Amino acid sequence: MQKCYKIEEIKMAVQKAKSEKHSVGFVPTMGALHKGHISLIEAAKKDCGFVIVSIFVNPTQFEPGSDFDRYPRTLENDFEICKAAGTDAVFVPSVEEMYQQQQLSWINVEKISELLCGASRKGHFKGVATVCAKLFNIIQADKAFFGQKDAQQLAVIKRMVSDLNIPLEIIGCPTIREIDGLAMSSRNKYLLPNERKAAPLIYASLQLAEVLIKGGETDITVIKQQVEKIISNSSLITPEYIEFVDPDTMESLTTVGKRTLIAIAANLGKARLIDNLLVSS
Ligand code: AMP
Q1: 130-142: per-residue pLDDT in tens?
Q2: CA-nearest residue, atom 18 of ligand 1
């Protein structure tokens, strides 16, 4: 597995792969890799001849005062994980390498970025979209793999690629969970033992919503009350939002649609966790 720290290095690796007629799959990450990331690498490996994983904790998507400095960084372990999952090249740029001059150009995916997490994390999706556009331009992959776990991020990236005619296919991959249902996340490391015990209530509440929808309930107010009731079983969970939205636009639904995305963000101690479930009816 090749380790590339410089833009020119990864570009050369891609050029070589393409000259050997490999299709190129790309998995962008912020490191602290877990089974969720591994599933993306494996999906890329199945689909593409040459797989690149980027590991970059992108400062421009963290608001001031958030967890940029304490975000877990486990680079050596990440390399092992990438290698074991069949990664062909890792791209690990420094902040200086990615932002070589003052960034004056930004990508703002309107509307989708302003709702849900975008409402409280001002500028977050602008940072995400911009760094993804930079990475897409550097790597020039055929396909990029993103987790449904970050459903709003997936919607923002899909829309950016479509609006800007970026020649790249975006593949959404299912959320990987712990045995008790908690969605795997690098931020789960922030949970204290009692918070960790309470955290699966978030997924349990999503599952209940799915049962209600599949059972024919269409009134979102009724379903939301039941979701809130499950979450309120633990005083350690402070919901930031519980929303029923269109999975492409993130706009609120008034009644259950053909495809309903139920999205939750909640604070547990120092951890801000997000989870979601896409329900078809
Ligand atoms: P991150 O390193 O948290 O920025 O995530 C990098 C990629 O991994 C994103 O596309 C995430 O959606 C995806 N991801 C994170 N957690 C999971 C999970 N539990 N299951 C599937 N994909 C995930």
Answers
A1: 999 999 999 999 9
A2: 36
Residues 6+ apart with CB under 8 A from 135: 26, 28, 54, 56, 91
127 lines ligand 1 (CB under 6 A): no
Which residues have a catalytic role annotated?
Answer: 37
Query: 58-98: per-residue pLDDT in tens?
Result: 999 999 888 999 999 999 999 999 999 999 999 999 999 99
Is the shortest distance between the CB of 188 and ligand 1 below 6 Å? no
Which of 149, 152, 173, 273 is the best mutation target for the ligand 1 pocket, counting ligand atoms within 8 Å of the beta carbon and taking the most?
149
Could you tell me the pTM of the whole model?
0.98
- Other C-beta atoms closer than 10 Å to the C-beta of 12 total 14
Longest CA–CA span in the chain (Å) reads 57
pLDDT band at 9 (very low <50, low <70, confident <90, very high): very high
